[in-house]
Design goal:
- Helices cover about 75% and strands about 5% of the residues.
- The protein is mainly alpha-helical and about 400 residues long.
- It has 3 domains: about 45 residues; about 100 residues, Type II secretion system (T2SS), domain F (Receptor-associated Protein); about 230 residues, Up-down Bundle (Receptor-associated Protein).
- Helix 3 packs antiparallel against helix 4 and helix 11 runs antiparallel to helix 16.
- The chain is flat.
- The mean pLDDT is about 85.
- InterPro entries: GspF/PilC, T2SS_GspF/T4SS_PilC_CS, T2SS_GspF_dom, T2SS_GspF_sf.
Length: about 400
């Protein structure tokens, strides 16, 4: 079964558009004709959905859903409208499943959970909370804000890393070009001269040998493979509380990564509090979908402590949470304005992390350029030093 996007003209209702499931284009036109719709255009929806499209799809989709509910649409009409604006077959199938679930009296969370490529388990859990509490529009609004914040952080990180990575890539290609194309030319010249070479030149000339170049390529390939394996295993490392705690202890990057994961969880915690979910249940919910195993353990500990009568600040006192957040939690509990205090403290932590990130990213390109310049200087000095010595000998 395939999905098609169509635009047509109805005898009574005028211009219309939507999506329809059919075995082929001819069957789709036949079905629309039976509904007294004369098709003007018919196009097959793309089947696969990429990661980038999925990230861009969710905020807009949830915002439309929230807007329709706030405008007074019931769930059936809202999802029919969402289905008419689908851009991929995956979206159309998800909308069809939700409409089928609504007809059968099932929950929306269960219906969208069968489409993990579009809706993450974390999102399904929050939709379930919104349905259970009757505050689905408020939950959707909070989810949209949270996704926008995460996308903005991701964009800032990509923008900050773009220039250093470009510099590193160009520098790497330059060095490889010198090793594989420039060194062999100078090696031929020195072989014809039959003179003793300086030690630095002898060392650099080792790179011209096929055996050495083969080892160099093998080393680069091994580094790339090691990076790929580490990236593939990264979610497993982060999901382990013990391993994650060790990662957080690494200099520079450890504390930054810890705070980034904490900010993600705080967004979820603020969303739960704004949705009128009790604090103990909010911590339990955040712990189920925490950004790392370490913080998952901390939120679960906080939930257990709250159920035993401890204060929120006491349950998190031994964690890696910044002092400004612990002070805000304590002040919020005493004043009854926990949500307000957490929001202000989270902004301060975000500003501090952004400043730290900008400082590192400003220095990183300079360090890369310095390192590359030193390597190029050594290579050029090794290549031209024998020629200078030869020139002095001729004189």
């Amino acid at each position: 079964m395939m999905w098609f996007h169509w635009q047509g003209l109805h005898n009574e209702h005028g211009p219309q558009k939507g999506v329809i499931a059919a075995n082929n284009a001819a069957s789709a036109k036949q079905q629309l004709l039976l509904q007294q719709i004369y098709v003007r255009s018919l196009s097959k929806l793309p089947k696969k959905i990429g990661t980038r499209h999925s990230r861009q799809f969710l905020p807009g989709f949830l915002f439309q859903w929230q807007s329709l509910l706030e405008a007074g649409f019931d769930q059936q009409l809202a999802w029919q409208h969402l289905q008419r604006n689908c851009q991929t077959q995956a979206e159309a199938e998800a909308c069809a499943d939700v409409l089928r679930a609504l007809t059968q009296g099932s929950s929306i969370a269960d219906a969208i959970a069968s489409h993990p490529n579009l809706f993450s388990p974390q999102l399904c859990a929050w939709v379930d909370v919104g349905e259970s509490t009757g505050r689905l529009p408020e939950v959707l609004k909070g989810l949209v804000n949270t996704l926008e914040l995460e996308r903005e952080r991701r964009k800032q990180m990509n923008d900050a890393l773009r220039y250093p990575l470009i510099v590193l890539a160009v520098a790497g290609l330059t060095l490889l070009g010198m090793v594989f194309f420039l060194l062999p030319r100078f090696a031929e010249i020195y072989a014809q001269l039959e003179v003793s070479l300086p030690a630095i030149t002898e060392a650099v000339m080792q790179l011209e040998r096929p055996n050495t170049q083969r080892k160099l390529l093998m080393g680069i390939g091994f580094a790339i493979a090691l990076f790929s394996i580490a990236r593939a295993l990264w979610p497993r490392y982060i999901a382990s509380a013990k391993v994650c705690d060790r990662i957080y202890r690494l200099p520079l990057i450890g504390n930054w990564l810890c705070q980034q994961h904490l900010l993600h969880d705080l967004d979820m915690l603020l969303l739960a509090i704004e949705s009128a979910i009790p604090l103990q249940q909010s911590c339990q919910l955040v712990g189920q979908h925490a950004a790392s195993g370490y913080w998952q353990q901390q939120w679960q500990t906080a939930s257990a402590g709250l159920s035993q009568g401890l204060t929120f600040s006491q349950t998190l006192a031994s964690s890696n949470m910044p002092d400004i957040l612990l002070q805000a939690i304590a002040a919020g509990e005493q004043s009854g304005q926990l949500n307000r205090q957490l929001t202000f403290a989270k902004k301060q932590v975000t500003l501090a992390l952004n400043q730290q990130q900008q400082n590192v990213m400003h220095i990183l390109p300079t360090l890369v350029l310095i390192a590359v310049s030193v390597i190029v200087l050594v290579l050029l000095l090794a290549l031209y030093l024998p020629l200078f010595q030869l020139g002095q000998t001729v004189r």
